[in-house]
């Protein structure tokens, strides 16, 4: 994702800003209105116990038992999950912050990317890499809209604490967003202008390729994708298409695929600031 959702944005004092030249031009914030040629925004569902079987007034373990016995629909399970995330928000954020601090001290890829961002007069630390609970929503067609993190030139990096499975998952997510930060400083990414989709596609390709989130062991052990040939390329392409589709200016999956294909060759071959794909 290119921007932080307004409901979870860090305070203004945590802005991601290059050091030194404070007059450096930065991309303008995205406009709040929806582009006229973009697809309509999805409608999201509110929980209805009569429809879903999930009753928030019951104890959590009673609803959990109903899930185990098939008395709650898939939509209801998502509403139950969100309520448990709300109840455990403080715990999840504290764990996320501890893992973030550990990675800044000991993770080779995180330390490398932090140094490369610093070399471009940018700063990433605990003041602008923040852990928050990120709400997920259920669309009318059954899709669950959720995110693992985000980068904003005006705020920094968001890590969705409730979506992090473990420290390794957080490391992949943080590395992904740090590649966006490096791209923004190095290439002045157009996040909201006429070139926004092509730029978004390119930085998403690079972030998925370099962060380690598409390495074979992650694909096989976590996502169950056991294909031995071109699985890495397929993962990078798929995740880039999904990210482009989430942008308001993208019309549909066909449009997203077209944009990703247009920039694929040049962006997939660009390993900077690394020399090779190490993870």
UniProtKB/TrEMBL annotation:
One of its GO terms (molecular function) is metalloendopeptidase activity. Keywords: Hydrolase, Membrane, Metal-binding, Metalloprotease, Mitochondrion, Mitochondrion inner membrane, Protease. Residues 10-43 have a biased composition (Low complexity). It is an enzyme of class 3 (hydrolase). It is a peripheral membrane protein. InterPro entries: Peptidase_M76_ATP23. Has a dual role in the assembly of mitochondrial ATPase. Acts as a protease that removes N-terminal residues of mitochondrial ATPase CF(0) subunit 6 at the intermembrane space side. Also involved in the correct assembly of the membrane-embedded ATPase CF(0) particle, probably mediating association of subunit 6 with the subunit 9 ring. This is Mitochondrial inner membrane protease ATP23. It comes from Chaetomium strumarium.
């Amino acid at each position: 994702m290119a921007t932080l959702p307004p409901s979870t944005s860090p305070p203004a004092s945590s802005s991601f800003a290059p050091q030194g030249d404070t007059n450096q031009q930065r991309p303008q914030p995205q406009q709040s209105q929806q582009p006229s040629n973009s697809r309509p925004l999805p409608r999201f569902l509110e929980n209805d116990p009569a429809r879903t079987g999930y009753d928030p007034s019951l104890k959590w373990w009673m609803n959990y038992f109903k899930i185990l016995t098939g008395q709650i629909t898939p939509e209801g399970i998502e509403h139950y999950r969100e309520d448990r995330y709300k109840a455990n928000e403080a715990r999840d954020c504290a764990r996320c912050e501890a893992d973030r601090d550990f990675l800044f001290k000991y993770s080779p890829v995180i330390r490398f990317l932090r140094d490369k961002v610093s070399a471009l007069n940018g700063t990433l630390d605990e003041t602008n890499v923040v852990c928050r609970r990120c709400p997920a929503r259920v669309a009318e067609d059954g899709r669950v809209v959720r995110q693992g993190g985000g980068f904003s030139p005006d705020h920094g990096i968001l890590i969705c604490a409730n979506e992090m499975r473990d420290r390794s998952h957080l490391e992949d997510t943080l590395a992904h967003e740090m590649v966006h930060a490096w791209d923004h400083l190095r290439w002045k990414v157009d996040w909201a202008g006429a070139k926004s989709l092509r730029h978004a596609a390119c930085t998403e390709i690079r972030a998925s390729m370099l962060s380690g989130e598409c390495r074979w062991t992650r694909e096989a052990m976590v996502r169950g994708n056991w294909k031995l040939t071109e699985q890495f390329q397929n993962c990078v392409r798929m995740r880039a298409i999904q990210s482009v589709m989430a942008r308001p200016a993208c019309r549909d999956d066909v449009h997203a695929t077209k944009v990703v294909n247009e920039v694929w060759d040049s962006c997939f071959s660009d390993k900077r600031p690394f020399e090779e794909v190490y993870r």
